[in-house]
TrEMBL record:
Keywords: Dioxygenase, Oxidoreductase
Annotated protein name in UniProt: Alpha-ketoglutarate-dependent dioxygenase AlkB
UniProt source species: Pseudohalioglobus lutimaris
GO MF annotations, alphabetized: dioxygenase activity
Record-linked Pfam families: 2OG-FeII_Oxy_2 (PF13532)
InterPro entries reported for this sequence: AlkB-like, AlkB-like_sf, ALKBH3, Oxoglu/Fe-dep_dioxygenase_dom
PANTHER family xref list: ALPHA-KETOGLUTARATE-DEPENDENT DIOXYGENASE ALKB HOMOLOG 3
Domain Fe2OG dioxygenase span(s) in chain numbering: 105-204
Highest rank taxon of the organism: Bacteria
Biological process terms in GO annotation: DNA alkylation repair
Length: 209
């Protein structure tokens, strides 16, 4: 029996993408409603807007974020090192649920807040060294539906995938997904409401920490 077979009502869907291991849970049991989680996290999270430097120019990232985790779960992303905030009670409960769904441990979570249609995430892979080989990532979506688009890192003949993520859904990314694919969230030309994305992951402690 697989881990996900323990959740027959979760709307489990294995997604077909060469060189990737993607599973979408459309209706996982989160313990509370997606709307309640969204409202609580929007209100309680100390959101930050970071900068990113591209081609010698520094810009504000088009979204807000927060990083939570165990004390040694330092994370380096876009040239910055993030020190984790301690898990809140709400996030600790979610972490346990995500670990149960994925059958893998998590010691940290990155929260991205897309405030409206102008916020986005560029193409990237979660392939930082501290995530280890073939990381397991559980991605929880709350609020407005947005499209997560996948494009190949190396072989364009692999095709592409545009995946609409419903509020309350969980996308599990495993295996060689990060080796072979990049993913991102585009800006929209129509107005839309807020969306939160929580990506749970396991960050390996750096030597000497």
């Amino acid at each position: 029996m697989t881990q996900l077979s323990l959740y027959p009502d979760a709307g489990v869907e294995a997604l077909s993408l060469p060189g990737a291991d993607l599973t979408l849970l459309r209706r996982p049991d989160l313990g509370v409603s997606a709307s309640e989680l969204l409202a609580g996290l929007l209100a309680d999270t100390p959101w930050r807007q970071e900068t990113i430097t591209l081609f010698g120019k520094t810009h504000l990232q088009p979204r807000l974020l927060a990083w939570y985790g165990e004390a040694d779960a330092q994370y380096r992303y876009s040239g910055k090192t993030y020190q984790p905030l301690p898990f809140t009670k709400r996030l600790e409960t979610l972490r346990k649920r995500m670990a149960s769904l994925a059958g893998a441990p998590f010691n940290s979570v990155l929260l991205n807040y897309y405030r409206n249609q102008r916020d986005s995430m560029g193409l990237h892979a979660d392939d930082e060294p501290e995530l280890g080989r073939e990381p397991v990532i559980a991605s929880l979506s709350l609020g407005e539906e947005r499209v997560l688009y996948f494009r190949p890192k190396h072989d364009r003949e692999l095709g592409a995938l545009d995946l609409t993520l419903p509020s309350g859904s969980v996308l599990l990314m495993r295996g060689a997904t990060q080796d072979n694919w990049k993913h991102g969230v585009r800006k929209l030309t129509r107005s839309c409401g807020p969306r939160l994305n929580l990506t749970f992951r396991y960050v390996q402690a750096r030597p000497g920490h």
